[in-house]
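Q: How do we represent a protein-ligand complex in a form that can be generated token by token?
A: Start from the inputs.
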Amino acid sequence: MQLYNSLTHQKDTFRTYEPGKVRMYTCGPTVYHFAHIGNLRTYMMEDVLEKYLRYTGLDVQRIMNITDVGHLTSDGDTGDDKMLKGARREHKTVMEIAAYYTDAFFADCEKLNIKKPEHIQPATGLIGDFIHIIETLLEKGYAYEAGGNVYFDTSKLDQYYRFHDFREEDLEVGVREGVEGDENKRNKADFVLWFTKSKFDDQELKWESPWGLGYPGWHIECTGIAIRYAGEHLDLHCGGIDNVFPHHTNEIAQSEAYLGHEWCPQWFHVMHLNTTSGKMSKSKGEFLTVSLLEEKGFSPMAYRFFCMQSHYRKSLVFSWENLENAQGAYQKLLAKIRPLCAAQDAVDEAAKAALLAKFTEAMDNDLNTAQAITVIYDILKADTTAATKRACIEAIDSVLSLDLLKNAAALAEQKDAAAEIPAEVQALVEQRAAARKAKDFAAADAIRDQITALGWQIRETREGTVVTPIG
Ligand SMILES: [Zn+2]
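Then emit the structure tokens for the protein with zinc ion bound:
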């Protein structure tokens, strides 16, 4: 498989340190709020990558951290503590916030068919490992104490900026929010490994350490967690493009200084999801969550389909209209697959292998999911048995996870039930669909009330709109 590597800036042949085994690390969420659908796009593309590696016969062990301490609102060492901010906002303790939003994150993942990693590790559960790494970095001369904190000394490295399209001047990005220089730093790029003195005197979570009561910096947790579960050699490290600098740059610096050798040769980054007005964030504009998509009548599978239609290394523009188009295309695809569900004929193994070769060709070319979806349409048009087509789609969907056969079968049942709906109700259902398409959600809601008054209920499900009698 050829996979783009952010370290080498080219597509490289995917390789593993130990034959047949992939140790894959994914930077996890900071659990102070819901994930927005832009964050979830990254996890979804990582999920497809993981499933495709399994499809090719590799044994994948995937590791994810849960950041429940130490992540400040800028990705550098300034700004507010995100967890503390969340706790204040909701008048809860930091651990209550962490538990609540960790569950919410995995609930969203489940709706989007994102598989859980084999190892999920909250940062607060591995403090001893972080302290050990920091002690070693101090012993080796890669770290120093200043003003109560421990810092990584980036001047000790031959090359700090490893993703070399990110230059010194980009460092300003790290301090853009609440700009305040830290006079303890010897070099501009140095970063905190352990805080005992921060501006948060009321920080709830603190641990004893050789440097006093304090807490770890954000970057050290990924190094500690990855090494705990993957050992000294990681095969593949993933994250959003935002993480390249400073987070991943710092992870490499401290991991390789600690280990004394190369740590992870392959880096996979997913580009931004943008809105029509720019980069998506939790604080700007509409806060786009999976729940909001569902409230507006979109199925999580329509969003997954929307993401799969685009390459992970391209910025994707989200708009309700784009999602509506994707949902429409997804429903049409299900309708095309529907007749295959009841296929009784035999699978032509040679034809199946030839069709699936097109799928692997697409995915081997830097995980081209858009091309993989085109292959599904080719399969539907192919001159072979229905059972062959169904078997191919089943194999492809074990990677893309779009619930194609399941939802096509549900659609078939739904079509049978639709016959019994009275014409008056059916007419209203169609009016409501038209109102929604025109984004007149107020009118759509009013029509829904009329339908309810007639004794029918209308629900948006993964399979589309379902109309059933009340009671
Ligand atoms: Zn990380």
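The pocket of zinc ion is lined by residues 27, 222, 247 (CB under 6 Å). The longest helix spans residues 37-55.
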